[in-house]
Amino acid sequence: MPADPLHRAGSPQRSATSPPSSGPAATAVEVRRSARRRRTVSAYREGDRTVVLIPARMSEAEEQRWVTVMLDKLAAQESKRVLGDSELAERARRLSEQFFDGRARPTSVRWVTNQNTRWGSCTPSEGSIRLSHRLQGMPEYVVDYVLLHELAHLLVPGHGPRFWQLLEAYPRTERARGYLEGVVAADRLPHLPAAREE
Questions:
Q1: Does domain 85-186 have CATH number 3.40.920.10?
Q2: How buried is residue 171: exposed, middle or buried, by Cβ count under 10 Å (0-12/13-18/19+)?
Q3: How far apart, in Å, do the first and last CA atoms of the chain sit?
Protein backbone atom coordinates (compact mmCIF):
# COMPACT_ATOMS: atom_id res chain seq x y z
CA MET A 1 0.00 0.00 0.00
CA PRO A 2 2.89 2.43 -0.63
CA ALA A 3 0.99 4.89 -2.86
CA ASP A 4 -1.76 5.31 -0.33
CA PRO A 5 -1.12 8.01 2.31
CA LEU A 6 -3.26 5.98 4.64
CA HIS A 7 -0.74 3.22 4.88
CA ARG A 8 2.35 4.78 4.76
CA ALA A 9 -27.47 43.91 13.49
CA GLY A 10 -30.91 44.41 12.10
CA SER A 11 -32.66 41.17 11.70
CA PRO A 12 -30.26 38.74 10.15
CA GLN A 13 -30.73 37.64 6.56
CA ARG A 14 -30.65 33.86 6.25
CA SER A 15 -29.56 31.63 3.46
CA ALA A 16 -28.89 27.95 3.22
CA THR A 17 -25.85 26.50 1.57
CA SER A 18 -24.50 23.01 1.08
CA PRO A 19 -21.43 22.22 3.15
CA PRO A 20 -18.57 20.00 2.14
CA SER A 21 -19.76 16.71 3.56
CA SER A 22 -17.85 15.40 6.53
CA GLY A 23 -19.52 12.08 7.02
CA PRO A 24 -22.11 11.47 9.67
CA ALA A 25 -21.34 14.74 11.36
CA ALA A 26 -22.19 16.65 8.17
CA THR A 27 -25.17 18.94 8.65
CA ALA A 28 -27.12 21.48 6.65
CA VAL A 29 -25.56 24.92 6.85
CA GLU A 30 -27.55 28.07 7.48
CA VAL A 31 -25.78 31.36 6.81
CA ARG A 32 -27.10 34.34 8.75
CA ARG A 33 -26.05 37.81 7.55
CA SER A 34 -26.22 40.76 9.92
CA ALA A 35 -25.79 44.49 9.23
CA ARG A 36 -24.58 44.90 12.82
CA ARG A 37 -21.78 42.43 12.33
CA ARG A 38 -18.78 44.28 10.89
CA ARG A 39 -15.81 41.92 10.71
CA THR A 40 -16.24 38.82 12.78
CA VAL A 41 -17.43 35.46 11.55
CA SER A 42 -18.60 32.76 13.93
CA ALA A 43 -20.29 29.38 13.75
CA TYR A 44 -22.03 26.94 16.04
CA ARG A 45 -24.06 23.73 15.89
CA GLU A 46 -27.83 24.07 16.33
CA GLY A 47 -29.53 20.69 16.35
CA ASP A 48 -28.94 18.99 13.01
CA ARG A 49 -27.50 22.05 11.30
CA THR A 50 -24.55 24.42 11.48
CA VAL A 51 -25.20 28.16 11.72
CA VAL A 52 -22.55 30.52 10.30
CA LEU A 53 -22.84 34.21 11.23
CA ILE A 54 -21.27 36.70 8.78
CA PRO A 55 -21.36 40.45 8.02
CA ALA A 56 -24.14 41.43 5.57
CA ARG A 57 -21.67 43.11 3.19
CA MET A 58 -19.76 39.92 2.38
CA SER A 59 -19.71 38.70 -1.21
CA GLU A 60 -20.94 35.23 -2.19
CA ALA A 61 -17.34 34.10 -2.73
CA GLU A 62 -16.31 35.33 0.72
CA GLU A 63 -19.35 33.61 2.21
CA GLN A 64 -18.40 30.27 0.64
CA ARG A 65 -14.79 30.62 1.78
CA TRP A 66 -15.81 31.44 5.35
CA VAL A 67 -18.35 28.61 5.48
CA THR A 68 -15.57 26.16 4.59
CA VAL A 69 -13.17 27.71 7.09
CA MET A 70 -15.72 27.63 9.92
CA LEU A 71 -16.84 24.07 9.19
CA ASP A 72 -13.23 22.92 9.35
CA LYS A 73 -12.67 24.87 12.56
CA LEU A 74 -15.73 23.32 14.22
CA ALA A 75 -14.71 19.85 13.06
CA ALA A 76 -11.20 20.32 14.48
CA GLN A 77 -12.61 21.50 17.83
CA GLU A 78 -14.98 18.56 18.00
CA SER A 79 -12.35 15.99 17.09
CA LYS A 80 -10.12 17.13 19.97
CA ARG A 81 -12.49 15.20 22.18
CA VAL A 82 -11.06 11.73 21.85
CA LEU A 83 -13.58 9.09 20.94
CA GLY A 84 -13.52 5.92 22.99
CA ASP A 85 -13.41 2.54 21.26
CA SER A 86 -17.18 2.05 21.59
CA GLU A 87 -17.84 5.50 20.04
CA LEU A 88 -15.37 4.69 17.28
CA ALA A 89 -17.21 1.44 16.56
CA GLU A 90 -20.55 3.29 16.45
CA ARG A 91 -19.06 5.84 14.08
CA ALA A 92 -17.83 3.02 11.83
CA ARG A 93 -21.32 1.50 11.85
CA ARG A 94 -22.90 4.82 10.81
CA LEU A 95 -20.32 5.33 8.06
CA SER A 96 -20.95 1.82 6.74
CA GLU A 97 -24.70 2.53 6.66
CA GLN A 98 -24.23 5.88 4.95
CA PHE A 99 -21.68 4.91 2.31
CA PHE A 100 -21.75 1.13 1.95
CA ASP A 101 -25.43 0.33 2.67
CA GLY A 102 -24.34 -1.32 5.92
CA ARG A 103 -22.50 -4.12 4.12
CA ALA A 104 -19.19 -3.55 5.96
CA ARG A 105 -19.69 -4.99 9.44
CA PRO A 106 -16.56 -5.02 11.58
CA THR A 107 -16.43 -7.23 14.67
CA SER A 108 -14.17 -4.73 16.46
CA VAL A 109 -12.95 -1.16 15.92
CA ARG A 110 -10.36 0.27 18.28
CA TRP A 111 -7.49 2.69 18.76
CA VAL A 112 -3.98 1.25 18.98
CA THR A 113 -0.64 2.79 19.89
CA ASN A 114 1.63 0.38 17.99
CA GLN A 115 0.96 1.68 14.45
CA ASN A 116 3.53 4.32 13.68
CA THR A 117 3.88 3.76 9.93
CA ARG A 118 0.19 3.20 9.12
CA TRP A 119 -2.92 5.25 9.85
CA GLY A 120 -5.12 2.18 10.08
CA SER A 121 -5.24 -1.53 9.45
CA CYS A 122 -7.86 -4.17 8.86
CA THR A 123 -7.87 -7.95 9.17
CA PRO A 124 -10.79 -8.99 6.94
CA SER A 125 -10.73 -12.62 8.12
CA GLU A 126 -11.37 -11.45 11.70
CA GLY A 127 -13.40 -8.36 10.83
CA SER A 128 -11.15 -6.22 13.03
CA ILE A 129 -10.18 -2.60 12.38
CA ARG A 130 -7.44 -0.73 14.21
CA LEU A 131 -6.74 3.01 13.94
CA SER A 132 -3.49 4.65 14.94
CA HIS A 133 -3.69 6.89 18.00
CA ARG A 134 -1.85 9.51 15.88
CA LEU A 135 -5.22 10.28 14.22
CA GLN A 136 -6.65 11.54 17.50
CA GLY A 137 -7.08 15.30 17.27
CA MET A 138 -7.07 15.35 13.45
CA PRO A 139 -10.14 16.79 11.68
CA GLU A 140 -13.24 14.62 11.77
CA TYR A 141 -13.34 14.14 8.00
CA VAL A 142 -9.83 12.66 8.10
CA VAL A 143 -10.75 10.12 10.79
CA ASP A 144 -13.91 9.29 8.83
CA TYR A 145 -11.84 8.69 5.70
CA VAL A 146 -9.48 6.32 7.50
CA LEU A 147 -12.44 4.44 8.98
CA LEU A 148 -14.08 4.19 5.55
CA HIS A 149 -10.81 3.03 4.01
CA GLU A 150 -10.58 0.17 6.49
CA LEU A 151 -14.31 -0.62 6.21
CA ALA A 152 -13.86 -0.88 2.43
CA HIS A 153 -11.22 -3.56 3.05
CA LEU A 154 -13.90 -5.72 4.65
CA LEU A 155 -15.60 -5.70 1.24
CA VAL A 156 -12.55 -5.61 -1.05
CA PRO A 157 -9.24 -6.79 0.45
CA GLY A 158 -6.75 -5.15 -1.99
CA HIS A 159 -6.33 -1.69 -3.50
CA GLY A 160 -7.66 -2.43 -6.97
CA PRO A 161 -10.18 -0.40 -8.98
CA ARG A 162 -13.17 -1.88 -7.10
CA PHE A 163 -11.68 -0.72 -3.79
CA TRP A 164 -11.16 2.88 -4.96
CA GLN A 165 -14.62 2.88 -6.57
CA LEU A 166 -16.10 2.21 -3.13
CA LEU A 167 -14.26 5.18 -1.64
CA GLU A 168 -15.49 7.51 -4.40
CA ALA A 169 -18.79 7.62 -2.48
CA TYR A 170 -17.07 9.68 0.25
CA PRO A 171 -16.82 13.24 -1.10
CA ARG A 172 -13.81 14.22 1.01
CA THR A 173 -11.54 11.32 0.06
CA GLU A 174 -9.06 13.44 -1.91
CA ARG A 175 -8.99 16.17 0.72
CA ALA A 176 -8.37 13.67 3.51
CA ARG A 177 -5.65 11.92 1.53
CA GLY A 178 -4.00 15.29 0.90
CA TYR A 179 -4.15 16.11 4.62
CA LEU A 180 -2.49 12.80 5.53
CA GLU A 181 0.16 13.24 2.82
CA GLY A 182 0.92 16.67 4.29
CA VAL A 183 1.35 15.19 7.78
CA VAL A 184 3.72 12.54 6.42
CA ALA A 185 5.71 15.15 4.47
CA ALA A 186 5.97 17.44 7.52
CA ASP A 187 7.25 14.53 9.62
CA ARG A 188 10.04 13.97 7.07
CA LEU A 189 11.27 17.58 7.19
CA PRO A 190 14.52 18.05 9.07
CA HIS A 191 13.85 19.41 12.51
CA LEU A 192 16.08 22.36 13.17
CA PRO A 193 17.47 22.76 16.68
CA ALA A 194 15.80 25.45 18.74
CA ALA A 195 17.54 28.83 18.60
CA ARG A 196 19.68 29.53 21.63
CA GLU A 197 18.99 32.61 23.68
CA GLU A 198 21.99 34.93 23.82
A1: no
A2: middle
A3: 48
